[in-house]
Hints:
Elements (H helix, E strand, L loop, with lengths): L1 H14 L18 H19 L5 E8 L5 E10 L2 E9 L8 H14 L5 E7 L4 H6 L3 E7 L6 E8 L5
Parallel strand pairs: 3-4
Antiparallel strand pairs: 1-2, 2-3, 4-6, 5-6
Amino acid sequence: MSARVTLRRRLSDWLRGGRTRASLEYEAGEDPADEDIAAVQRGLMNYNEKFTGDAPQVRLGAFARDATGRIVAGAHGTITWSWMYVERLWVDEALRGQGVGTEVLARLERAALARGVYRFRVDTASFQALDFYLKQGYEVFAQLEDSPPGHTDYFLKKRIDLNP
């Protein structure tokens, strides 16, 4: 049994290139500090840029406000690697089915198009807005069952042809 452990350690050391992890401290838990999250993001972005070049991220948003200035619908997302990821889209329940979501999404897409971005992606759960996105020209390219439990998470994409 000890020979097996020794073999695993040697194989592990070989796979790590002889580097040792003895001086590292590991931690895991809820609500990590913002600066810890930022350190991971910076590290990954620095690594990715070796392959992709500088990939700045641009945040965009589009909103609808009522007469009092309260936001009643909105969408926001991030452009990176020439794709617009629609992170969130929400319409107050009293305004759904009246074209407000369509207008907000169209304005967000136009803001991306003005920056030369014509590819979009979004994900939505089965109890959210799958039919809405399909009507807006998005197509499902993947789905994840039981996420959240009892539902399906759909991943959609859309490409707007700039030369019709």
